[in-house]
Amino acid sequence: MTCEHCGSNISPDGTSCPQCGFEIPKPSASKKSAKVVPFRPRKKARRPVPSKKRPPTPTFFWWFIAILAAAIVLPYIVPMHP
Questions:
Q1: How far is the C-alpha of 63 from the C-alpha of 11, rounded, in Å?
Q2: Cα atoms found within 13 Å of the Cα of residue 54, Cβ hemisphere only
Q3: How far apart are CA 64 and CA 30, in angstroms?
Q4: Counting Cβ atoms within 10 Å, is residue 17 exposed (0-12), middle (13-18) or buried (19+)?
Q5: N or C: which end of the chain has fewer CB within 10 A?
Q6: Strand residues in 1-82 grouped as ranges (E)
Q7: Contacts for 19 with CB less than 8 Å, ≥ 6 apart
Q8: From CA 71, how far away is CA 41, in angstroms rounded?
Q9: pLDDT of 18
Q10: What was the pLDDT predicted at 67?
């Protein structure tokens, strides 16, 4: 058996190191070892993602697009001169 402190040889029935005087702890039978729980990192909480909803397009916008399309296409469909 060797001393944990200085590394010199110790007799198996010794209670302290003859070189440095370090006391050797005696293992007790009643001492229970603690249960080791493996480390598991927590999952990061996700922040709620704001929805990317656009506000509804006003109705007059669609009327404007329809009239503009008709004004561009209609002269090619119905000729103005007889």
A1: 102
A2: 3
A3: 89
A4: buried
A5: C
A6: none
A7: 3, 6, 8
A8: 65
A9: 82
A10: 94
pLDDT means per 10 residues in the chain (82 residues)?
Answer: 79 81 70 72 79 79 93 83 64
At 52 the pLDDT is: 78
- Residue 73 main-chain phi, psi, to 5 deg: -90, -35
Q: The tokens 């509804």 sit on which residue?
A: 56
pLDDT at 33: 66
How far lies 50's CA from each of 7, 28, 54, 69, in Å? 65, 60, 12, 36
pTM over 0.85: no
